[in-house]
């Protein structure tokens, strides 16, 4: 933000045209008074949005104190009395918690392993398609699943994996037994990750395709002059060109690692598949809203949120130290 | 980028391989849609014997008639439309106002205002406190339980902010000299220049509200308040329940499966129809958002 820009914008915004340079004398509170007098109309536009953030984003954060307080439904949203770490100790000693914790890690890791690199591969393949109309068609088709409600995706998954569905028809054709996929805990992770890949990989190529178009053609030219093969061009020119995009997306992916798609798991799982499918968020949903252990569930939820925050902060720091790219 | 002297034998093999892979991607992506469409028109017997693949077997419209004659389906469909329109409108007003404020670089306290929004991307209150809050505010069984907690998406906010920052300042300055106040500048100068980004934002919000179901599932107790996504969810959940009861319920499940197929087709149809026309707006919106990260 350059000084001259600040000044012009500052004066223009203000009908009574106060001499601009005065703004630079910092006198604590008085500058705030002046800013308010000059920009009160702008500030007024921020009032409702700020109310929204305070009520619907920050109040719930504070509401997490019920993890350390006794809560009674219908009572104060901040609970009744302090109970210290009772609920934290409770979930740390709860074997089911550690089971769902492990499931969350596994499902998150599998999602990351498949859903992070595949868009890069698909983008590189799409980038080699030279007929523009064909390329546009391929992009349109691969973006499509992104726009579907998770309920519809779950419905499609159920239909595809049904005992009378096409996957079982194929198995029958190949001569193997029918499998009731949705009832079998051994299949849940495969199904979940496949549906995630189906829905997200196409859309995930957008940013890579954009990054690919910004790579200077002269770099390829120079590489060819040096006798680089197609593979070496990809390795030495294309991949470095999309590295900043990849790193940024990797940080974001790691940050949301723990937030395994609650809605999709919730729609796809059932008591038979709990051993592999139950994750932290679904467990706390059942504990909190079905069994009404609000404080216990809030303690688990707070744990999950803090781990998520720590993950994204550390991923950001690590990437800034190692590859020099970071979110902020 | 690729010139003819690149067409070595290895590269031609690669192009062939690439064609096969991309064809597979298209087939895998589209197959579920085609299959579900075929199922929705097929007879129960053909479906349960697992014969339906790409084309309907035992073509009939019975299931469509059953679904279409359920008044609850249409009530829920209408709810989806109402919720989407109201929620998108409110979200647009809130997002536009805040994004405009955040785009004014000279504004004192701007960094704090941006921080208030961005922090919520990385840390959130979580399910339980939110539920307690919404219930405590008495928003259960009202449209506001869906609209208000989702009035600003920070991603969309940052996209709009980036766009507003990219607008030339001279026009606004000239308008200010002509005596327009901030509201006038926003309404008469900035918004007319921002039609493209507004269209994109409306689409982003509309799709997310159209697709959402969990807020309604959580906060609506009466089925006449459900959006169609919850209607579909309850169908699916019913079917899984029946599945686990084994053979006795097999027939019920089958009918359920066909009704599911029809309901999925009817729910997904508006998106498929509109999608080809609006897709480019989404792409440009994502790009705009990516610039600002």
UniProtKB/TrEMBL annotation, chain A:
Transmembrane regions listed in the UniProt entry: 40-59, 100-125, 137-158, 201-220, 241-262, 294-318
Span of domain ABC transmembrane type-1: 101-315
Localisation per UniProt entry: Cell membrane; Membrane
Annotated keywords: Membrane, Transmembrane, Transmembrane helix, Transport
Region feature Disordered, mapped onto this chain: 1-29
Membrane topology (UniProt): Multi-pass membrane protein
GO cellular component terms given for this protein: plasma membrane
GO BP annotations, alphabetical order: transmembrane transport
Main location as per UniProt: membrane
Similarity annotation: Belongs to the binding-protein-dependent transport system permease family.
Name of the protein this chain belongs to: Protein lplB
């Amino acid at each position: 933000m350059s000084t001259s820009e600040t000044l012009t914008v500052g004066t223009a915004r203000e009908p009574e045209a106060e001499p601009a340079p005065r703004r630079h004398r910092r006198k604590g509170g008085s500058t705030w008074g002046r800013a308010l007098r000059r920009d009160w109309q702008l500030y007024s536009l921020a009032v409702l949005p700020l109310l929204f953030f305070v009520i619907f984003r920050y109040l719930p954060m504070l509401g997490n104190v019920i993890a350390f307080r006794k809560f009674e439904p219908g009572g104060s949203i901040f609970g009744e009395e302090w109970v210290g770490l009772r609920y934290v100790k409770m979930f740390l000693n709860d074997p089911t918690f550690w089971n769902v914790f492990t499931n969350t890690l596994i499902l998150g890791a599998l999602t990351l392993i498949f859903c992070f690199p595949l868009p890069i591969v698909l983008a590189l393949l799409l980038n080699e398609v030279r007929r523009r109309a064909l390329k546009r068609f391929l992009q349109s088709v691969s973006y499509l699943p992104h726009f579907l409600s998770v309920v519809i995706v779950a419905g499609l998954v159920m239909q595809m994996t049904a005992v009378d569905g096409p996957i079982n028809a194929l198995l029958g054709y190949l001569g193997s037994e029918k499998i009731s996929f949705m009832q079998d805990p051994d299949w849940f992770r495969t199904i979940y990750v496949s549906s995630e890949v189906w829905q997200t990989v196409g859309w995930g190529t957008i940013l890579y395709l954009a990054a690919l178009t910004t790579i200077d053609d002269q770099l390829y030219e120079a590489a060819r002059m040096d006798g680089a093969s197609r593979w070496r061009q990809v390795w030495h020119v294309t991949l470095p060109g999309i590295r900043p995009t990849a790193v940024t997306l990797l940080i974001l992916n790691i940050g949301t690692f723990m937030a395994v798609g609650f809605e999709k798991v919730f729609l796809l799982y059932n008591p038979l598949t709990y051993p592999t499918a139950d994750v932290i968020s679904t467990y706390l949903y059942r504990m909190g809203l079905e069994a009404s252990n609000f404080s216990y569930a809030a303690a688990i939820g707070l744990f999950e949120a803090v781990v998520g925050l720590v993950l994204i902060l550390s991923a950001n720091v690590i990437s800034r130290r190692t590859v020099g790219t970071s979110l902020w | 980028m690729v010139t003819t002297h690149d067409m070595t034998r290895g590269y031609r093999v690669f192009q062939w391989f690439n064609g096969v892979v991309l064809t597979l991607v298209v087939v895998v992506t589209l197959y579920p849609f085609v299959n579900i469409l075929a199922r929705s028109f097929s007879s129960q017997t053909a479906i349960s014997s697992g014969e339906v693949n790409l084309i309907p077997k035992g073509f009939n419209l019975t299931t469509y008639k059953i679904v279409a004659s359920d008044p609850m389906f249409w009530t829920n469909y209408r709810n989806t439309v109402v919720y989407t329109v109201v929620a998108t409108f409110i979200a647009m007003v809130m997002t536009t106002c805040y994004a405009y404020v955040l785009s004014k670089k000279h504004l004192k306290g701007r960094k704090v205002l941006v921080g208030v929004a961005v922090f919520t991307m990385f840390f959130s209150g979580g399910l339980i406190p939110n539920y307690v809050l919404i219930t405590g505010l008495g928003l259960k069984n009202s449209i506001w339980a869906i609209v208000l907690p989702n009035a600003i998406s920070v991603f969309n906010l940052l996209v709009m902010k980036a766009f507003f920052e990219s607008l030339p300042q001279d026009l606004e300055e000239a308008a200010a000299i002509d005596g327009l106040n901030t509201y006038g500048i926003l309404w008469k100068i900035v918004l007319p220049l921002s039609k493209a980004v507004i269209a994109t934002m409306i689409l982003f919000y509309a799709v997310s509200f159209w697709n959402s179901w969990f807020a309604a599932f959580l906060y609506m107790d009466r089925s006449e308040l459900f959006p169609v996504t919850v209607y579909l969810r309850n169908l699916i959940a019913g079917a899984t329940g029946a599945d686990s009861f084994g053979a006795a319920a097999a027939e019920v499940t089958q009918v359920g499966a066909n009704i599911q197929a029809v309901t999925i087709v009817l729910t997904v149809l508006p998106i498929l129809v509109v999608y080809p026309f609006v897709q480019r707006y989404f792409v440009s919106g994502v790009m705009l958002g990516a610039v600002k990260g």
